[in-house]
From TrEMBL:
Stretches the record annotates as Disordered: 134-182
Superkingdom per UniProt: Eukaryota
Pfam families, per database record: Retrotran_gag_2
Protein name: Gag-polypeptide of LTR copia-type
Organism: Trema orientale (Charcoal tree)
PANTHER family found in the cross-reference section: OS01G0873500 PROTEIN, PTHR47481
Taxon lineage: Eukaryota, Viridiplantae, Streptophyta, Embryophyta, Tracheophyta
Skewed-composition ranges (Polar residues): 143-152
Amino acid sequence: MRWFYASLSEGVMSQIVGYNSAFEIWETFASATIARITELRTMLQTIKKNGMSAMDYIQRIKHLCDTLATIGEPVSRNDHLIFLFGGLDKEYNSFVASVYNRPDQPSIEEIHSLLSSFDFRLEQQNPTIKLIHPQANAHPPSYHTNPDSAQRPSFHSPTIPSTPPPHTQPGILGKPQYPQSP
């Protein structure tokens, strides 16, 4: 066992102090490995893109798959695709369908590249637009209680005149503009 102890790092050595056989050490690490495999596979099953860039999302999945491979549980190509596509939002449905409907089976790396390109196109075609809401300055609704209605609140919205006051002109978004004093 001396040669075995001599080949271990201090961190691992501290975990196995007191064990008398390789079997005991193996059992300890095997149970920890099973728990880690379960944890990593659960992470793969539940990961979502949710605003991550395609590259970050791909790297996260690749890291989890690589970690599983290093502990003896490599992820198959099909499982990798299931995990990758399972975490994408509905805007990626056409991309997923196009990959599944290809006559060839592109490599994982090619699919990653295609996903990055598709993600870039989505970002370019769907820029975030900040809209000015026409009722942004309207008064919020008020709640009043009516004693005759058993304390049920009634909803009253503010009254907005249908015609502008005199000496005004309609402006942008239908808001009246008042003439400026000379």
